[in-house]
Model the fold of this input.
Amino acid sequence: MATKGWTRREFLRGVAVAGAGLALSACAPKVTPKPAKDKIVVGMSRPLSGPQAIVGDSAFRPVYETFVKEVNDAGGVYVEEYGKKLPIELIVYDDKTDVGTMTRLTEKLIVEDKVDFLWPACGTSFIFAQAPIANKYGYVLITAEGGATTIKDMLPSLPYVFVTLSFSDWYQLPVLAELLSKKGAKTAYIAYIADLHGIEYSGVAGIEFPKVGIEILGVKSIPPDMKDLSPIIRDAKAANPDVFCCFAYPDQIMPATALSIELDFNPKAWVGGPGVNFGFYYTAFGPATEGVIGFTSYSPKQSDAARALAEKLYAGKPIDVQDYWGHPLYWAGLEIWKQAIEKAGTLDQKKIRDIIATERFQTVLGDTWFENGLLSKDCHTGEIGQWINGVYEVVGPEKWATAEFVYPKPPWPKG
Amino acid sequence: MNTRKNLRQIWLLGLTLIFLALLATLPLYAPTYTIILMTSILMYIVLTMSWALFSAPTGYISLAPAAFFGIGIYTSAILGTRLPLPAVILAGSLISFCLALLIGALTLRLRGIYFAMFTFGLVELIKNFWLWYEIQFTGTRGRFVIFVDNTTIYYVMLIILALLLLVTYLIRRSRFGLALRGIGECEEAAAHIGVHVNALKTATFAISAIFMGAAGAIMATRWTYVDPYVAFNPLYSFMSVLMAIFGGIGQPYGPILGAAIFAYLEEILITRFPYYYMLIFGIVLIVTVLYLPEGLIGLVANIRKRVAGGQDALA
Done:
């Protein structure tokens, strides 16, 4: 049979087959009986590949990685029924930014891996699909990236789900409208991305702005795949509004900013988000960011705890990785998770849920609690941010402001 | 020779039936997650096989599976609360069928890369049209789908697969299938000998869409929440093509093998090696394209030939 040696092609085929075989055998079912508890296993389905990977890797991932390291360095989470501290062990799967895969992996984590806790998937539609599953199996789910007005209506039917991120009418745009009207803004122009996020924000602005006497001169939607925004910026410039809002993602916010500078479109207020709230916005535009408005939830200047969090997450890293909107809220969510376990003294989901739903916790935001499944808006230590002298300050609500709201913003620097 | 071929056919049929029977009893003893994973693998098999039903014999590369799959998903999202499950799935397949009929009649005159581009554009077109429609007229931004238990979803998917196998078998051994292969070999020649080229292509394209729509309608109930981006995800078009090529499109069993192994391999990679998933996946694809141009089926055939050749030499 073997009359001649293997050719390279045959060899490579062999290798390919052997590789596939190895991979198959690697997945033989593990039958390790659970010993007495020596760790808390937390499972997550995250977009490690696909279009959302960049979001997931810069939003919740640095937060949970830092959190797990900090907790484990201190020995873990104290659970009374075991009489000791249990370190956190993470199981992370890649959902390829596909909702179908995410729902499957979520059920795998629950029914097969029998993880002790579930941490959230990434993105609004992902948490919409994940929340009913977590709730069905009675797993507490404190979400990170994502949140929308529609989830508010669902939350009463999802007692195990808790949403941390702030959003349009919770309580960003009412605060923005009030800030602007106090400074005398009369007209606004809104550009929004034609997806769930953009529709929601432009819809809420359409309610909140007229309430305080700001007339909306124009509303234009940006198709999600459109990259050339010049017709929209030109149209906005022709309308000559006091306020320009661009409710889209960094992919559109960045070129919209660049075009506004290029076309010398200088409204008295330029609002963009999400995008303006990231460190990389400053890296890209430097002094031109002066006066640009975005969303936020805290400033390191507000308290020692806030400063310590910024130090933990950002020290020694480029300014690009900073996110003043999401990071503190996700961190607070994890702190609540840990404190609720310690208060419950058990890993029983029902008891932990009841504690999260009813009690108050001390987090980076100060006194923190959930209200009907949403992180109470009274816990947000800021809603509206503005770049002032190269620092992303909280300017609204006034109670939390770290700087005076600048209106009108200075014109874009020339040259 | 003929009896040998018949024997082989009977053997394959028997094997298929045994395999289907095994799959049908799976929920009796398998753990829950195995059922969930198998449902997803069956879904990929259905998508890949129905893609191959049209594209393998004709040589037209369609990137439309995601469109018909998405139609099924949305049918389920809209009708799920109003109609019983079988009616919802039937509706999903029928709507996909009608749409494919329309699209096929309009565009199957396009050939080669133009057809591929059009079908890819179709997914984007439906997605954006639907997004626009939802925003303008219904004001919904996404929809929640009814819950169906895992075992039911599994059985529905299995029934869809069994029907698809039957249809594939019937088409392949009919004059219809022969004419399709004729189109793949040389479309002009087929037209000259009296084959109704466009009607045949359109009909097959539409039949394949039935199964994609049905798969989408039942899968949606597992996903619980859909929006146009979730439903019309081009990933599902590419996966169908990749899996079919991986398995080998020359033989009916190629796409099944390709989809099953590919889906399983992917599951292992995203759970065991999540941080290297894309890297390993890419390497597997490159190796396949470079060294297994006829897919796994080609590899199996090669090995068999070699073994048989060795026996002959010994004799």
